[in-house]
Specification:
It contains 15 helices and 13 strands. The chain is α/β, with parallel strands linked by helices and 450 residues long. The chain binds beta-D-fucopyranose (FCB). Beta-D-fucopyranose (FCB) binds next to loops.
Length: 450
């Protein structure tokens, strides 16, 4: 399988997961510092205080990327490094760190993709109400303005938000990510503020970096019914509305899906309907984008419960599962990519995250098979006409996996956290060879299409 000329091959990380240096050079705590320092919230009480110490080792990390032939690097900026009070006063030291990183990447011939929000809300803004409050969107617009002013002369690819479903529902309704709430109404208000803030940010980036490409990274866990029963079909449809359509429909000018507004109202999750949606919000949210970012890891097998809280993904006996307990299912990725293009008409898609956690080192054959399977899905979608312009593997190196702490390893590069040594796994060399040739040997099996 020969990938198209110009297809971009890269890797991705995020600030809190790799930087460490949590209290250095003027950075103030984010909600993840608070959360990870709260007993019982993360595995083994792990924090990102040190993580991969990338804040001090970034030069070596960029050099290693260059050695591996990486063409694009997606990273995020830490909001409280740049705006320690959440808004207002700019911390030049914070901006300088990212500015130097961008220069080093460009010098190495690596295209930077900058994510503005990968979950590091400054704690001061959380104290003022956090994402359920509209003011937080105005503060985010400031971050977008300040950052794109400083880096917009060099950064050509911008991502406003990483995974709004996680920022809103996973963090405010499921409660396993910071700030750890379990409140449906707050979660749905948060989802709206996040989406609205995305639209506000797009305008700032366009003003400060007129030639840059701007997009957003949305995560997907496509649903399939556990059985042919009407109840399980309904469960799959609900999951789709909750996870996929609530976000994608709003971003593509279709507003919030009526069936979900009805469902949430019935459940009492929207006690006053969509009263938090103000005139013009939906137009702002649907600002035209240059690309759409897709994060995909696994699918969801939907079984009916009494409400969305009680729904579960049932296991698929005999299937391959990663160390995260996520089913390996490349065909769902293939179908998702087709759906996005044929139903929503995205003009350009980047895969902004895809990868897997396995603990094997240095011979991580299972990771190679995962990547090969998912890249085959990308290739097949491209053959259908889906305009996929690049693939950013998650992740460049093992890192702090949020509530899972350091128990998961997503990297193609191994990190020894005792010594901070970086050691490329087999998959890193395999990926280097794929990049060099732009070619992949298929491992697509008919059984993957079940
Ligand atoms: C995604 C996150 C990323 C990483 C991967 C495994 O949801 O965006 O930071 O944790 O999952």
């Amino acid at each position: 399988m020969q990938f198209p000329e110009g297809f971009l091959w890269g890797v991705a990380t995020s600030a809190y997961q790799i930087e460490g240096a949590w209290a250095e050079d003027g950075r103030t705590p984010s909600i993840w510092d608070t959360f990870s320092h709260t007993p019982g919230r993360t595995k083994n009480g792990a924090t990102g205080d040190v993580a991969c110490d990338h804040y001090h080792r970034w030069r070596d990390d960029v050099a290693l990327m260059a050695e591996l032939g990486i063409q694009a690097y997606r990273f995020s900026v830490s909001w409280p490094r740049i705006l320690p009070e959440g808004r207002g006063k700019v911390n030049q030291k914070g901006l300088d760190f990212y500015s130097r990183l961008v220069d080093a990447l460009l010098e190495a011939g690596i295209i930077p993709f900058v994510t503005l929000y990968h979950w590091e809300l400054p704690q001061v803004l959380q104290d003022a109400g956090g994402w359920p409050e509209r003011d937080t969107a105005a503060a985010f617009a400031e971050l977008a303005d300040v950052t794109s002013r400083a880096l917009g002369d060099r950064v050509t690819h911008w991502i406003t938000h990483n995974e709004p479903w996680c920022t809103s529902l996973l963090s405010h309704q499921v409660g396993v990510h910071a700030p750890g709430w379990r409140d449906w109404h707050a979660a749905l208000r948060a989802a709206h503020t996040v989406l609205w803030s995305h639209g506000l940010a797009v305008a700032h980036i366009r003003a400060n970096a007129p030639d840059a490409e701007v997009g957003i990274a949305i995560n997907f866990e496509p649903a399939t019914p556990a059985s042919p029963s009407p109840e399980d079909y309904h469960a799959a449809r609900l999951w789709d509305g909750y996870y996929f359509r609530w976000f994608v429909n709003a971003l593509y000018g279709r507003r919030y899906p009526a069936d979900m507004v009805h469902y949430y109202t019935q459940q009492g999750y929207l006690p006053h309907g969509l009263d938090f949606v103000q005139t013009g919000d939906m137009e702002t949210i649907a600002a035209p984008l240059d690309f759409f970012g897709v994060n995909y890891y696994t699918r969801h097998i939907a079984q009916a419960g009494e409400s969305l809280d009680a729904h579960r993904s049932v296991p698929n006996p005999g299937a391959e599962y990663t160390a995260m307990g996520w089913e390996v299912h490349p065909d769902s990725f293939y179908r998702l990519l087709n759906r996005l293009y044929f139903e929503y008409g995205m003009g350009k898609i980047y895969i902004t995250e895809n990868g897997c956690s396995y603990l094997d080192f240095p011979h991580d054959q299972k990771r190679i098979e995962y990547l090969r399977g998912h890249l085959t899905a990308v290739y097949r979608a491209i053959q259908n006409g889906v305009p996929i312009a690049g693939y950013l593997q998650w992740s460049f190196m093992d890192n702090y996996e949020w509530a899972e702490g350091y128990t998961q390893r997503f990297g193609i590069v191994y990190v020894d956290y005792e010594t901070q040594q970086r050691l490329p796994k087999d998959s890193a060399f395999w990926y280097r060879d794929v990049i060099k040739s732009g070619k992949l040997n298929s491992n697509f099996l008919k059984k993957d299409a079940d």
